[in-house]
């Protein structure tokens, strides 16, 4: 009597996304772009602090970058849904390239600090124009069944660039500071050439002409979907309060003991800035080689709590290696939350709303990143850098406890693979969109 065997489950392919040529080329080009951007971010913070010796003006770098995010990200999300996304990205990269060249010129001739702030504002505005389109482009490059894998690898490559960029930037700063801005400009040009050559599948576009109404639909989509709202707002407050990275020039030059390490302050700044990206890279590679996350809600809450604890320990440390290790752990924990949040945003959202919802996500996370830098600089001016970093880490832990109570669906949320996209235009009835079924939750 023959036995009936169940069909074998397909093996998990950790490299599924990289088997798609368009995704592979786009991801590597974006990685190089991020290397240039990371080096430029390191350079502007170091230059401002070196020329002013003022932590508040260092924090102002974050505020100048946050204002364009608040002003332009939502309109950019609308544009990403109604116009050609590739053209928007190319226009965005052209603006970023020109502002990087301007920063290089003002750095070389020791131009006005306030003009450099203006150029930084324009640079951030250019990047905001293309960010929602870049975020919404990924589903057009890969099929849905490998999308979570694609997000994991995109974050992995982003962290590789985030790790390489500051290290390279630190050596460039020690050699010639304006060179960091020139590298950023060159990386933008290279990205433009690659993007222009990609075969990109046609996407569904929203109708034009109702910008305010359509932007409101994107905001309402996030507001009514409590799972999505909880995940995005949790990350937002964690980033807002955990802005230690903006004070790294202060730690590298004035706080951490570099005796016996054999590094200059500029070089140590590069390594400290690279440490979170190194941790995020290790975690991203780990996640990419593992099956999809099963208990995503609980994992997200624990990851943000770990981020807060590592931030507190970093703030109190004077030892270079302990500080480096804690920054490494912030990257480990942050990457987990990034993968969960990005996957959730893109999978729940229908294609014709991805630009707007990605824009809402960017306003929450991107602006809080930069505003967090300003908050850190402001508290450092009132008290000191250590108080600023430690209080931010403690605040992050408080937020985790509060969100675990305020968003029970987030706490109970199971596997990302169980998420179903909401169907437009029923924005008013999507409160439960993306929630796993009871059977799915039991399995998880």
Question: Topology of this protein?
Answer:
Blueprint (H helix, E strand, L loop, with lengths): L20 H32 L2 H28 L2 H24 L4 H25 L9 H29 L2 H20 L13 H14 L1 H16 L6 H8 L9 H24 L7 H21 L3 H29 L5 H29 L2 H22 L1 H5 L25 H6 L1
Task: Describe the fold and architecture.
With 444 residues, the chain is mostly helical. The chain has a single domain, classed as Growth Hormone, Chain: A, CATH 1.20.1250.20. It is 75% helix and 0% strand. The protein contains 16 helices and no strands. It has helices at residues 21-52, 55-82, 85-108, 113-137, 147-175, 178-197, 211-224, 226-241, 248-255, 265-288, 296-316, 320-348, 354-382, 385-406, 408-412, 438-443. The longest helix has 32 residues, at 21-52. The radius of gyration is 22 Å and the shape is globular. It starts with 20 loop residues before the first helix and ends with a helix. Mean pLDDT is 77; it is low at 1-9 and 425-444.
